[in-house]
Design goal:
Helix 5 packs across helix 8. The protein has one domain (11-309). It contains 13 helices and no strands. By secondary structure, it is mainly α.
Length: 310
C-alpha cells in the first residue's frame, strides 16, 4: 500500500469523532441494562443482527448494491470478526464481573495499542514522541476523570480485565485492517461487516446459550438492545468508516478517550448530574493529549520556545 499523502483530522473529522464518542458512550450503559436479563453472547447477536437488518434496508433504499465477490466478503468477514464478534463478546463478558467504569478505562487503551501496531504495520501512521505523549496523557485523563473508585477492582477479576484489554487489541487490528476499505462507501462496509458478524455469532449462540430457553426479556432490556443495535452499531459504524478513510486508524480510535467525556457531559446535560472537579481535570488532560496527537500543542510550544530563544 502506498503511503497516504495526509492522514489528518480536519474540523469535519473532529466533529464526527465527537458524534461517534456520543453514540459509543451509551454502549456501556446499554450493556449494563441488558445484562440484567440476557447472557453476553445473546446481546452480541441482538446488537449485530438488528444492525445488519437496518443497514441492509438502508443499502437497498439508497439504490446501492452489496459486493458479490468472494474477496469482498472474506474482507467483510475478517473485519466483522476483529471489530465486532471478538471485542463485543470479550467486553460484554468482562462486564459481567467488572464495572462499566473500569471497562471504559481498559477500553481507552485502544489508541495506545493502535499507535504501536500502526507504527509496525503501516507506512503512513508512524509513532512520534508527540503522538505517544498525547495517548498517554489522554489515557491518564480517562483514569482521573472516572476516578479511583473505578480502579478499586483493578487487582481482582484479572481474567475479565484481560478480556477487555484483548478487545482493545482486537479493535486496534480492526482499525488498521479497515484501511483497505477506503473507496468503499461507509454504508456498504458497515452493512457487510455486521452481516458477517451476525453469521459468525448465530451458530455460536445456538450451541452455547440456547436463547429459546431464556425467559422473555422486559421492555427495558429490549430498548437497551435496540439502542445498542441502531445507535451504537448501525449509525456509529457508518461514521466509523467515514473517519477511517480520511484520518487513519490511529486518529479514529482516539474516540475511546472521548467516550467517557461524552458519557459524563450527557449525564450533566440530560440528567442534571453534577460535574466534579476531578472530571474537569480529567477532561483537561484528555484535551491536552488530543492536542498533542493532533500536533497543535507541540507546534504552539515550539513556536513559543523559538520566540523566547530569539
Amino acid at each position: 500500500m502506498k503511503p497516504t499523502a495526509s492522514l489528518t483530522m480536519g474540523s469535519t473529522e473532529w466533529l464526527l469523532l465527537v458524534a461517534l464518542s456520543v453514540l459509543w458512550g451509551g454502549t456501556f450503559f446499554f450493556v449494563e441494562v441488558a445484562l440484567r436479563e440476557l447472557p453476553p453472547l445473546v446481546i452480541v447477536l441482538g446488537r449485530v443482527g438488528m444492525a445488519a437488518i437496518a443497514l441492509n434496508i438502508l443499502v437497498v433504499a439508497s439504490g446501492r448494491r452489496m459486493p458479490v465477490t468472494a474477496l469482498a466478503w472474506r474482507q467483510f468477514m475478517t473485519m466483522g470478526l476483529l471489530n465486532n464478534a471478538i471485542p463485543f463478546s470479550l467486553i460484554f463478558w468482562g462486564q459481567t464481573q467488572i464495572t462499566g467504569g473500569l471497562a471504559a478505562i481498559l477500553n481507552a487503551t485502544t489508541p495506545l495499542f493502535t499507535a504501536v501496531l500502526a507504527h509496525a504495520l503501516t507506512r503512513d501512521e508512524k509513532l512520534t514522541p508527540g503522538r505517544l505523549a498525547g495517548v498517554v496523557l489522554g489515557l491518564a485523563g480517562v483514569a482521573v476523570m472516572i476516578g479511583v473508585d473505578a480502579l478499586a477492582g483493578l487487582g481482582s477479576f484479572i481474567l475479565a480485565q484481560v478480556a477487555v484489554i484483548g478487545a482493545a487489541v482486537s479493535y486496534s487490528f480492526a482499525g488498521i485492517y479497515g484501511r483497505r476499505f477506503k473507496g468503499t462507501p461507509p454504508l456498504i462496509t458497515a452493512a457487510g461487516q455486521v452481516t458477517c458478524s451476525s453469521a459468525l455469532m448465530l451458530p455460536i449462540i445456538i450451541m452455547v446459550e440456547q436463547p429459546w430457553t431464556l425467559a422473555p426479556p422486559s421492555w427495558a432490556t429490549w430498548s437497551a438492545v435496540v439502542g445498542l443495535a441502531l445507535l451504537s452499531t448501525a449509525l456509529a459504524y457508518i461514521i466509523f468508516f467515514r473517519i477511517l478513510a480520511v484520518a487513519g486508524a490511529t486518529n479514529l480510535l482516539l474516540v475511546t478517550l472521548l467516550i467517557p467525556v461524552s458519557a459524563i457531559l450527557l449525564g450533566a446535560l440530560f440528567l442534571g448530574e453534577q460535574v466534579e472537579l476531578q472530571e474537569i481535570a480529567g477532561m483537561a488532560l484528555i484535551a491536552a493529549g488530543l492536542a498533542f496527537i493532533d500536533g497543535r500543542l507541540p507546534r504552539f510550544l515550539m513556536a513559543r520556545w523559538r520566540v523566547k530563544a530569539t
